[in-house]
Amino acid sequence: MEDEPPSTAATNRRRLFGNIPDSTWNDWKWHFRNRITTVEQLNEFIPLSTEEQAQLRWVTMRYPLSITPHYLSLIDPCDPDDPIRKQAVPSILELSMGKMGIEDPLAEKEDSAVPGLVHRYSDRALMVLTDICPMLCRHCTRKREWRHGGWVRTDDEIEAMLDYLRRHKEVRDVILSGGDPLTLSTQHLESIIVRVRAIEHVEIIRIGTRFPVVLPQRIDDELCNMLSKHGPIWLNTHFNHPRELTPESARAIDRLLRAGVPVNNQSVLLRGVNDSLETQLRLCQGLLKIKARPYYLFQCDEVQGTEHLRTPVEVGIRIMEGMRGHTSGFAIPNFVVDLSHGGGKVPLQPNYIVSQTEEELVLKNYQGRKFRYRNPNNRKATRQMPVESLLSAAKKQYQTKGAVDADRVVV
Ligand SMILES: *Cc1c(COP(=O)(O)O)cnc(C)c1O
Ligand code: SF4
């Protein structure tokens, strides 16, 4: 992106991983194995003061640290307020503001029909396949799980979930989630997808993953060939900032699309990361350039350890207002709050209705100009008038116009 420090990613890769050949850099398993998970390792890449190192050791005891080499190479090491860094590098504020918020705000545990299966909306169900993620995002809704980390559902648990899905014919949309489901091997993932696909009433499968952003090398030919066999599969990913739109990520999205997998984006509104109209425009327009459709912009959940990254709800509404009318309609995501206690997602948008009666609305357009809009008031007409008089009224109208054979008018 032209107004960013000259290609941070490429420069950083050379500086930090100069001895790593392309063949290794392009191998997703290498990135996965070489994640940065300790404060000492982090300090080798991003200079931290002694005080900061001590603080981060405390934080990581509660909320562990994990950054992929790819994502690390996007961080500007000289800028403590770097928007990429804020998503990846722990902050003492996770503990010092930690009293605010709740551990499981979405009450996913209560909504679990069988362990790992969240069935909140009648026709959609979510399968939590693992709690492992290649990168641990500091704003993660599930950060409470990290300490018990490192599990993948056993086959018995998967079978119990599938059993539930087989018995619930109302489920037509199954979401594979985590953690990150792409941490499973392609073969393992395929064995699950095949069994979900075999359930007749399941129409679509969705995968929720941040790999295209934090470890795009994972989207390789093997994975795409597999996905192309079991469609319709949709993929939702999680870009939060325009600087994450790297050539590697663009290639990953392109491969998915060629495999017949449409890609949508669910971002989280984060203070100091993407909480301005200008950044959101660049992010969403940049997403369209790599052919990923902005889907949701989430208000950051009320999760313990994320308070420092949350924004007042008005910030999101103002961003929506600034986008509508000023960019392609399909560059605009839905701004949603995921309610605490399992209430579900609620869309929030600016109010465009200035006043409203049965006869007329006054509406505000994207420029703030007000317009009258006649409200078709045919409630009485359609509800109360007998069909015969409707018919004769219709005939009369057509007869006076004389263009249509009145007997062909059917009401
Ligand atoms: C978000 C979510 C879904 C999917 O919702 P959509 O609006 O269809 O994207 C399904 N189940 C749960 C539990 C969710 O949180
Ligand atoms: S990718 Fe999603 S689930 Fe994983 S750490 Fe980030 S926000 Fe949490």
Write the layout of secondary structure elements.
Layout lengths: L7 H10 L4 H4 L2 H6 L5 H7 L4 H13 L6 H4 L10 H6 L4 H4 L15 E3 L2 E2 L5 E5 L26 H13 L5 E5 L8 H12 L6 E5 L2 H4 L6 H9 L3 E5 L9 H12 L4 E7 L7 H13 L3 E7 L13 H11 L10 E6 L4 E4 L5 E4 L3 E5 L5 E5 L4 H6 L2 H15 L10
Parallel strand pairs: 3-4, 4-5, 5-6, 6-7, 7-8, 8-9
Antiparallel strand pairs: 1-2, 2-3, 9-10, 11-12, 12-13
Pyridoxal-5'-phosphate (PLP) binds next to strand 3.
Summarize the structure.
The protein has helices at 8-17, 22-25, 28-33, 39-45, 50-62, 69-72, 83-88, 93-96, 155-167, 186-197, 211-214, 221-229, 247-258, 277-289, 313-323, 379-384, 387-401; strands at residues 112-114, 117-118, 124-128, 173-177, 204-208, 233-237, 263-269, 293-299, 334-339, 344-347, 353-356, 360-364, 370-374.
Structure report:
A hairpin with a 5-residue loop joins strand 12 and strand 13 (370-374). The protein has 17 helices and 13 strands. The chain is 36% helix and 15% strand. 35% of the residues are buried. The chain has 3 domains: 8-96, no CATH class; 112-348, TIM Barrel; 383-411, no CATH class. With 411 residues, it is α/β, with parallel strands linked by helices. It starts with 7 loop residues before the first helix and ends in a 10-residue tail after the last helix. Bound molecules: pyridoxal-5'-phosphate and iron/sulfur cluster. Iron/sulfur cluster is lined by residues 133, 136-137, 140, 142, 178-180, 210, 238.
